[in-house]
Amino acid sequence: MGWRSLLLLGTVSLGLIVIEPVSNLRAQSAVVWSTGFEDGSEVDWYGPDGFSGGEFNSGCAGASPIRGFGRNPSGADPYPVSLVLTTAAPCGALAESGTRMFRFLEPRLFPDLYYMVWYYIPQTFTFTDPVNPWWILMSWKSSSTTPARNDPFFNVTVGNRADGNMFISLYEPKPYDPANATSHAQTLVNVPVAQWFYIEALYKSRGNSTGQVTVWQGDEASRTLLWDIHGVQTRYPDSEGGGTDWAVTSYANGIDPVPAQFAIDDVEIRTP
Ligand SMILES: [Ca+2]
């Protein structure tokens, strides 16, 4: 069954969504939140109170559970479910579109967390903005209360190498010091096409220059450390009411072909 057919199945399955509060909070030093979408919904993202995360879209973008296409590592479930993220950019007069699956709760409860997401990108995409092409797959943002701000601190982005293959970079906008924004590239691994792979990060949320961001890319057979960055500010300071939010995203300012679609599954947040 082709990707488009599976997507249609996923759209149909939306009628089967069961809305019920689900708490995936567990003990420390363990998985504190996770979802495999096996209930056919996004309800885990909003739980336990309905406001601890969720889907946020701009432009031409959105996310939908899809039945019959999942990572299904055990092979035991004949009808696995994943989540398809869809983005078209530009979108009319808008250069950018994005869909974002946020978790607000755990990044506020625990300063040090591992974040892991399995991705399935079915084809090679190219990034078409002539000035500043970008496509963000994962993001840590920080909001503050005094003053009121909400800005990205680290983004896992995708670019094209000279031969057209996709690879991930880590972009650090430094909203507190934008003149020194930094892009961390790597030549170790490409983004695999039509194959499940994961991005995992250890993010130590700090309002001063004592934070840490360590990122791996891997799959069932391999694991590669891409960056191990210490001594960095990873959110706005306590004195300004700073906190960290985390999101899995498909946020682009020019991507081809459109609609750009990929699946995620087995998303996990855990304490060190
Ligand atoms: Ca699943």
Q: Kindly identify the CATH topology.
A: Jelly Rolls
Overall radius of gyration: 18 Å
pLDDT average, as an integer?
Answer: 90
By DSSP (H or I, 4+ residues per run), the number of helices equals: 3
CATH class: Mainly Beta
> Residue share in helices?
under 10%
Low-confidence sequence ranges: 1-28
Structural class category: mainly beta
What percent strand? over 45%
The CATH architecture is: Sandwich
Each distinct ligand: calcium ion
Listing every helix as H and every strand as E from the N terminus to the C terminus, the arrangement reads HEHEEEEHEEEEEEEEEEEE
**Structural shape:** globular
Number of strands: 17
How many domains would you count in the coordinates? 1
Distance between the termini: 39 Å
Major β-sheet profile: 8 strands, antiparallel
